[in-house]
Amino acid sequence: MSATLLAGTVRSRVEHVWGTVVSIDVRDPDATDAIVDAAWESVRAELHRIDAVYSTFRSDSVISRLRAGGTQVVADDVADVIDRCLEARLATGGSFDPWQVEGGFDPSGLVKGWAADRCAAILAQHGLRSVAVDAAGDLVCRGSAGEGHDGWPIGIAHPDDPQAVVAVVEVRDGAIATSGTSQRGEHVTDPRTGAPARGARQATVVGPDGALADAYATALVVSGVSGASWFTALPGWSAYVIEGDTATAWGPAFDDTARGQES
């Protein structure tokens, strides 16, 4: 999933972190390279701090120590992430539950979107108003991509062909996250069974919050279209779920998208 290629000046920066890639696009017409570089240095520092705190691949991270039975939390925002995980577990009826994973508590299904929100806030603190943060496919967008767009046009990749787009949605001052099995394999676990999730091949969620968009997309891969029982009760959220060869959409972001279409 990536921002549609658009005309006009764009200042992009890319960082390899968390074993993946995080990037920003800045489209403020009055932003200079110096302004963007200063903002980007602050974002880079935050990305590496988040890796040091939340990585499950680093034995010295706070989360790894918690998973190993430690009780001391040394980063102020860990409690916030735990609270957000509890919120997502409650909203999804347990389809998202980072406590029911092998090895102990693992917030990875929420942290990328949470981190993208934090990075967008840092960019705003530097005076940048029209930005998109792409945290390995979880995007947080602020402002507009430019003339002719209310927000940022984001293409949703086809689960069988990442070069093809199944839908395009405009995201303004919000987030969009996709989870699925097509490109990373069966990496989503059903917390109710411990087995690989079988609910949907791919789920995309659009809404006001990056952390919850990330978690809800993961939860819909677990629950599939039956997740409508909890998802449609969430005001301001939209989803595009692919089960088999059928795509089902809910919510205002996809009002112009056919429901139950073949993907």
Q: Describe it for me?
A:
With 263 residues, this protein is of the alpha+beta class. It has one domain (2-262): ApbE-like domains (T-fold, Roll), CATH 3.10.520. The protein is 30% helix and 27% strand. It has a nine-stranded antiparallel sheet with strand order 2-3-4-5-8-9-10-11-12, covered by helices on one side. It has a three-stranded antiparallel sheet with strand order 1-6-7, with no helix packed on it. Helix 1 (33-54) packs antiparallel against helix 4 (108-125) and helix 4 (108-125) runs antiparallel to helix 5 (210-223). The relative contact order is 0.14.
Write a brief structural summary.
It contains 6 helices and 12 strands. By secondary structure, it is of the alpha+beta class.
Which structural traits does this protein have?
263 residues; alpha+beta; T-fold; 9-stranded antiparallel sheet; 3-stranded antiparallel sheet; globular
Distance between the termini: 16 Å
The helix count comes to 6
Estimate nothing, just give the exact number of structural domains.
1
Element-by-element helix/strand order: EEEHHHHEEEEEEHHEEE
Low-confidence stretches: none
Q: Tell me, briefly, the overall form.
A: globular
CATH architecture: Roll
Write the layout of secondary structure elements.
Blueprint: E1 2-3, E2 11-17, E3 20-26, H1 33-54, H2 62-67, H3 78-91, H4 108-125, E4 131-135, E5 138-142, E6 152-158, E7 161-171, E8 174-180, E9 202-207, H5 210-223, H6 228-231, E10 238-243, E11 246-250, E12 261-262
Antiparallel strand pairs: 1-6, 2-3, 3-4, 4-5, 5-8, 6-7, 8-9, 9-10, 10-11, 11-12
